[in-house]
Amino acid sequence: MKKIAIVGSSGSGKSTLAKKLGQVIDIKVWHLDAILWKPGWTLTPRKEQEQIQSQLVSRDSWIIDGNYNGTLDIRLQAADTIIFLDMPRILCLYRVLKRRVMYHNRSRPDMQEGCEEKIDMRFLKWVWEFPESQRQNLLDKLSQLKQDKHIIVLKSHRQMKRFLAEMKDQM
Fold first, then answer.
1. In what helix (H) or strand (E) does residue 30 lie, and over which residues does it extend?
2. Strands 81-85 and 3-8, how do they pair?
3. How many CA atoms, within 13 angstroms, populate the side-chain half-sphere of residue 110?
4. CA pair distance 21, 4, nearest whole angstrom
5. Taking the domains of the chain in order of start, what are their residue ranges?
6. Using an 8 Å Cβ cutoff, are 56 and 30 in contact?
7. Right CATH number for 3-170 from 3.90.1150.10, 3.40.50.300, 3.30.70.100, 3.90.78.10?
8. Model pTM above 0.70
9. How far apart are CA 161 and CA 164, in angstroms?
10. H helical segments located in the chain
11. Contacting residues for 14 by C-beta, under 8 A, at least 6 apart
12. In tens digits, what is the pLDDT along the chain, a chain of 171 residues?
């Protein structure tokens, strides 16, 4: 495990897992939200996103968390390990709402400065509909890659904690 892509719904725990796993296995973590959003919630243009991610995945080792479906294949193809946080939608929604309260009027640690935590109905709807709108697409991609990649699907906070504990034991 030297090149790890972490995917899942907003609120599934991608950034938290990336940070903790990076500490355990001593690999640099890249949060796509912090890289691709500029102050004032301006998204980096798609071509530039592709260039940035191509540079990141060319490194010897990395952990990258984030979905960004338009550039997802760059990370999935380059990864040796893909972790899909397939968490229950109610948990993801709860975490998104909790995060909004925790970081009111400021940026999260895994976000670009100048991107104060916000929430709107469109985003909440995206989180709620993730199991129907995004999950199957991710599972299909992972199924196509399972021969060449180490695929890990974690479906609960308990499984995530167990995975991290196992990684610590291996180190």
1. strand 29-31
2. parallel
3. 19
4. 10
5. 3-170
6. yes
7. 3.40.50.300
8. yes
9. 5
10. 14-25, 32-36, 46-57, 72-78, 89-102, 121-133, 135-145, 157-170
11. 6, 7, 8, 65, 66, 85
12. 999 999 999 999 999 999 999 999 999 999 999 999 888 888 999 999 999 999 999 999 999 999 888 999 999 999 999 999 999 999 999 999 998 887 777 777 777 787 787 888 999 999 999 999 999 999 999 999 999 999 999 999 999 999 999 999 998
Residue with tokens 């709620």: 128
Distance CA(72)–CA(66), nearest Å, equals 9
For residue 40, what pLDDT is reported?
A: 86
Residue with tokens 């308990």: 158
Q: How many residues does the chain have?
A: 171
